[in-house]
Amino acid sequence: MDNNKYRELRESVGSQARVAEVLGINKQTISNRETGKYEIGKEAAWAIRYLAHVKKGRLNQMEKVSE
Fold it and tell me: The pTM is what?
């Protein structure tokens, strides 16, 4: 995963600070991944994809409830 895709997914989930808190890592790590200073490993890519998937699922569930 490249840094732009990582940033796109992170933005769909929330702020750098919020994502870092959920993942139990430093906000600077998120920033470094997004700027290309850190390589985005398989675990990091999986984690951000999972968070984006969960967030999308919750939004879909909320839309169904409000219909």
Answer: 0.82
Tell me how far apart the alpha carbons of residues 36 and 62 are, in angstroms, rounded to a whole number: 35
CB 48 within 8 A of CB 13: yes
- 17-55 residue pLDDT tens: 999 999 999 999 999 999 999 999 999 999 999 999 988
| Euclidean distance between CA atoms 45 and 50, whole angstroms | 9
**Rounded to the nearest 10 degrees, how much is the dihedral formed by the CA atoms of 3, 44, 31, 23?**
150
Q: Is 7 exposed, middle or buried (0-12, 13-18, 19+ CB in 10 A)?
A: middle
